[in-house]
Structures are given as structure tokens and as C-alpha cells.
Design a protein that fits this description.
There is one protein chain. The protein contains eight helices and 17 strands. The protein is of the alpha+beta class. It has two domains: 229 residues, Aminohydrolase, N-terminal nucleophile (Ntn) domain (Glutamine Phosphoribosylpyrophosphate, subunit 1, domain 1, 4-Layer Sandwich), CATH 3.60.20.10; 80 residues, Immunoglobulin-like (Sandwich), CATH 2.60.40.3080. The strands form four sheets. A six-stranded antiparallel sheet has the order 7-8-1-2-9-10, with helices on one face. It has a four-stranded antiparallel sheet with strand order 3-4-5-6, with helices on one face. β7 and β8 form a beta hairpin. The radius of gyration is 20 Å and the shape is globular.
Length: 333
């Protein structure tokens, strides 16, 4: 009897961990290659939760679509979403079905991101329940025939989602490269606010992409990193190192020129800085963070030479990051 009670307790503890996790993620589908992919991260210690499948929230159906199920995650909801996709429902139809048929009758706590093919057409849809933990939101879009849905809860703010989208849209290379870039967009201290004291964005991160000829459950590209709570290891950086060793992303002369174009003056500054971005960066997202990686100001590049008000910043060292990888340090006195 005691053994049974202990087993039940362990099961309930694991279930609690599973339901409480999943913070920021992205799904994508490429209409040209028909690749589907998923990437995400969260501030949950998977070692303590006893979870070995780092990418469990992302469900890839080769040549069909991708589903990210998160926020009080339930495998049964994910299974239902997969079944609806196999029936031929579109991402919007799947989400509408899930909202009406939640396993526990409470879709207000769930969050979904779905992309899928309907013949040669591709679409994306997202869902954020009203009772997901703040900050929560989702965003869908497409670029060059690649459709995506980005979603997150327990976030530092909208900046996390916007930065992920900006990196995804401005990345060079295939779907895997774009997904990895999106994760880098969320690499800020406390992106998942529970990880603020750890000094990281999250505790685990993953990326996976399925080719149209892959079998279900065996994507040809799958990488993941999980870290312990209080280890103070940034999993997105660890994942990037593994990614770079296994996958090559294209670069262009324009991308290299972006690093040269970024100039800030005066330095040190007092009330504002003027930044010369260069035409290649117009439309990109910029973020100003402190020396600990905490984002404080953000906006979009609207002109080649742009002034930014920094009166609210205290004296110190700051980092301006633009687009996919550009950054420049400056001082305020």
C-alpha cells in the first residue's frame, strides 16, 4: 500500500511539473521544401520533473504540419490536435476544435501554435487562453513562403515575442536556421520570468525539423539541451554551440555589412544617442540591454540615422542589439 501511495505521489509531482511548463516556442512550415519544424524553451528543471524528451511540446507530422502544445500542458490535448491534423483540418479549424473540446474542459489555460499544409497551401494559427500566466501572447506570420506561429506565457513581456519574430524573419538559411535564430531572439535574462534569479532565459531548449520523407516520431534534425535549476547555464547558447557543429547556415555580404553599418554617438552619452544603422537594417528590431542582459528599451529601426531617448536609463554600460546578431556597447554618464 505504501509503495502504491509513493508511486502515485511521484506521478502527481511529475504531472504538476508537466502541466506548469512551456513558455516560449515557435512552429514553422516551409512551402518550398515542405519542411516542418518546432523550437522552444522554458524555465523548468526537466531532471527534477523526470522528463527525458526535451522536445515533447512540439509535435511534427512530416509533410503535414507542426503543433506546439503548451501552458498547463496535457498530452491528451496534443494527441487530439494530432488526430485533427491527420483528418485534414486546417490550423485554424484545429484550434477552434481544441478550444471547444479541451480534455479538462478549460481551454482558457492552454496555448497552441500550429502550422499546416492543405495541398500546396500553407497556413498558421495561434491560440492563447485568457487564463494563461502573464505575460502571454502569440503572433503568426509568413516570410518567403515560410509560415510561423510564435507563442509564450510567463514572459518578460511582448519584447520576447517581437524579438523572436524579428530574428526569425531576418535569419539567413533554411527553416532550422530561422528557428534557431528565433530562440536567440528570446535569449535574455528572465525571458521566462521564473529564470530571472538563474540569470538565464530558461532551463531547457530544443529545436527539431522534419523533412517530408521522415517518418512520424523520427525527425531528421533534433537537438536539445536541459540544465539544472541554479546551474546558471544559458541553454540557448549551449544549443547554439551544438547546432553550429552540425548545421551550416548561409550568410551573405549584406549580413556582414550590417555589422559595419552600426555606429553610435556620442559615447559616452547623456540623454539620447544617435545611431547610424545603415539601410540594410531598416525595419529590424533594436533592443537596449544592461550589462547583465536585461532588456530595458526596444523599438524598430525606421531610418538610417535615428535618435533614441535614453533619459530613463541610469549611468552605466549598455548594449544595443539590432536584427539577428549586431550589437554595440556604449556608456551613459
Amino acid at each position: 500500500m505504501k509503495s502504491f501511495l509513493l508511486s502515485a505521489l511521484i506521478f502527481l509531482m511529475a504531472l504538476t511539473y508537466t502541466q506548469a511548463q512551456d513558455t516560449f516556442s515557435i512552429v514553422g512550415a516551409d512551402s518550398a521544401t515542405r519542411e516542418v519544424g518546432s523550437a522552444g524553451a522554458s524555465c523548468v528543471d526537466l531532471f527534477s520533473a523526470g522528463i527525458t524528451d526535451i522536445g515533447f511540446l512540439g509535435d511534427l507530422l512530416p509533410d503535414t504540419g507542426a503543433i506546439n502544445t503548451q501552458a498547463y500542458y496535457l498530452a491528451a490535448n496534443q494527441n487530439n490536435a494530432r488526430a485533427r491534423m491527420r483528418e485534414g483540418l486546417t490550423p485554424v479549424q484545429i484550434i477552434n476544435w481544441l478550444a471547444m473540446n479541451d480534455v479538462q474542459g478549460n481551454s482558457t489555460r492552454r496555448q497552441y501554435g500550429i502550422v499546416g499544409f492543405s495541398g500546396n497551401e500553407v497556413s498558421a494559427a495561434g491560440f492563447t487562453g485568457a487564463n494563461c500566466d502573464n505575460y502571454k501572447n502569440h503572433k503568426t506570420g509568413n516570410i518567403n513562403g515560410i509560415y510561423y506561429s510564435i507563442q509564450g506565457n510567463i514572459l518578460l513581456g511582448q519584447l520576447v515575442i517581437d524579438s523572436m519574430e524579428s530574428r526569425f524573419r531576418n535569419a539567413e538559411g533554411d527553416l532550422a536556421c530561422r528557428l534557431m535564430a528565433a530562440l536567440q531572439g528570446a535569449k535574455m535574462v528572465g525571458a521566462d520570468t521564473r529564470c530571472t534569479t538563474d540569470g538565464t532565459s530558461s532551463l531547457f531548449a530544443f529545436i527539431k525539423v522534419a523533412q517530408p520523407t521522415d517518418s512520424y516520431g523520427n525527425p531528421s534534425f533534433f537537438l536539445g539541451v536541459r540544465t539544472h535549476d541554479n546551474a546558471h547555464i544559458e541553454p540557448i547558447d549551449s544549443l547554439q554551440s551544438i547546432f553550429d557543429a552540425q548545421h551550416l547556415c548561409e550568410t551573405t555580404t549584406v549580413f556582414e555589412n550590417r555589422k559595419i553599418d552600426l555606429k553610435i554617438f556620442p559615447d559616452p552619452a547623456r540623454n539620447e544617442i544617435e545611431v547610424r544603422f545603415g539601410e540594410a537594417l531598416i525595419g529590424a528590431l533594436f533592443v537596449i540591454s544592461d550589462q547583465f542582459g536585461r532588456p530595458l528599451l526596444h523599438g524598430n529601426v525606421s531610418e538610417v540615422s535615428q535618435k533614441i531617448d535614453i533619459t530613463k536609463l541610469a549611468s552605466g554600460l549598455y548594449v544595443l542589439q539590432v536584427g539577428q546578431a549586431n550589437y554595440q556597447r556604449f556608456l551613459k554618464y
